[in-house]
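ok so I'm stuck.
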Amino acid sequence: MAEDTLAGPLPPVRRWPALDLAGVDFDPVLAELMGEGSVSRIELPNGEGWAWLLTRYDDVRMVTNDPRFSREAVMEQPVTRLAPHFIPQRGAVGFLDPPDHTRLRRSVAAAFTARGVERVREKSRRMLDELVDELLQDGPPADLTAAILSPFPIAVICELMGVPAADRRNMHTWTQLILSSSHGAKVSEKAKDEMSACFADLIGVHEGSTGEDVTSLLGAAVGRGEVTLDEAVGLAVLLQIGGEAVTNNSGQMFYILLTRPDLTERLRAEPGIRPQAVEELLRYIPHRNAVGLSRIATQDVEIGGVRIREGDAVYVSYLAANRDPDVFPDPHVIDFARAPNPHVAFGYGPHYCPGGMLARLESELLVDALLDRVPGLRLAVAPDRVPFKKGALIRGPEALPVTW
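replied:
not stuck anymore, here's the structure
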């Protein structure tokens, strides 16, 4: 990699350790990098070499929507990364570029449209009401994560995916093992293989199906020859894992609401602002540790006075983009009246999270149900006693002890 920029020497390579952060504290290393400039160089705990990091909102949106930056090329070279194990699956949607990426996403698009998500709204509401009934029946204290925030998203994503009830516990276990770095590569790889085998069976059963759930749509697409079985399985695994991210996001949302009674009381008093409040909480919460998947520059590109060379690895930080003061005034303040709020919590460009609309639905249902049906809900321990996940790629509370 060349040792110059358009304006002088390259910025120094900054080591970015894997931090187990509690609460919703913003990553101090990321804050320092943002303060030093919009384009920097980082070395993460695993993988090889260094990579560019982009933190400015406009740069993040440009790179994630620019065909000169390839996800597929990541498969061909070692890149510095957060995860100690890297299990890319050839043909998986996360490592495809258009037009193959577009073709594969199209096969399940109907399930994630407004109509597709609306199809599961009432059943989701009923499942949530049953969980809240059980919470109230068992009485306080309780672990909100175990009682509500974990089983609800699992049930919803499995419903949308078409996963039978008998397989749902296994899906949850596999997801946790895949997302954790603390069990080692072999355990994670075994979990991914087992989840893949389960989806291969489900998709195979649905070849030629006219159903509206994801495995039916994938089975029909495989039957028509539009996608291969391997591609369909890779996409199903990614969607299933992503569906459980709501557990962590909602855990952080309720940690904020339960430690900021002023915000909670406003949402109880003004239920009409809840959808807008959910958007602001999605912008604010630090939903992951460090950064996700990189991209590889396929030609020289100038960004922020820096020449990124062909073959260079590039990361974007959606967390940083969501705190860009040029786009979000007072970015470290939670402002339920913030408008517009063009956050990138679900990504941007071709790899925009397909489940964004579903995650919004689940978050709004959770806020409605818990604030309206459990009016005295509060933390049962001091905020600094709430345990947060360690060794996880996605941030969130391990448990959320509450009473009412």
